[in-house]
Amino acid sequence: MIEWLQGLQGGAATFVGALTGSAIGLVALVLGALFNAHLNRRRDRELRLQDTRSIAASLWAELAGLEEALTSNAEGLDKSESDLFRTCLIRSGYCQP
Fold first, then answer.
1. Contact predicate 13/5, CB 8 Å
2. Based on C-alpha coordinates, what's the Rg of the chain?
3. Which of 12, 17, 44, 65 lies in disulfide reach of 8, CB 3.0 to 4.6 Å?
4. In whole angstroms, what is the distance from residue 21 CA to residue 24 CA?
5. Cα separation of 97 and 90, whole Å?
6. How many CB atoms lie within 10 A of CB 2?
7. pLDDT score, position 97
8. Contact, 71 vs 78, CB < 8 A?
9. Average pLDDT score over the chain
10. 95 φ, ψ (degrees, to nearest 5)
11. CB 16 within 8 A of CB 8
């Protein structure tokens, strides 16, 4: 192979050198693009995971606040239900104050 390369005359040597350099450059570009795509996919996966976690945390906080509001309302209704029922009975005349 080396003897063949040494035996090239004129423009053939230039052509083989340019072809070899171009092939190496193309392989380097393809490998770089594939590695860049890998890095982009990994970054996008991390961003999606972070978005998912933030949405889950916000939903958790919203539901916790809703639970607290519903619990306090239910406790308030339990305490005032007997008073309200008694007041209605007194006003209607079924019960003496």
1. yes
2. 40
3. 12
4. 5
5. 6
6. 6
7. 52
8. no
9. 84
10. -135, 145
11. yes
- Structure-token pair, residue 88: 């209605």
Extract the tokens encoding 46.
Answer: 């991390």
CA-to-CA separations, 53 to 60, 76, 80, 92, in angstroms, rounded: 10, 34, 40, 56
- DSSP state letters, 69-83: HHHHHHHHHHHHHHH
Write the single-letter amino acid at 81: E
Pick from 5, 29, 28, 26: which is nearest to 17 by CA?
Answer: 5
- Higher-confidence residue of 25 and 16: namely 25
Which three-class secondary structure string do you get for 13-50? HHHHHHHHHHHHHHHHHHHHHHHHHHHHHHHHHHHHHH
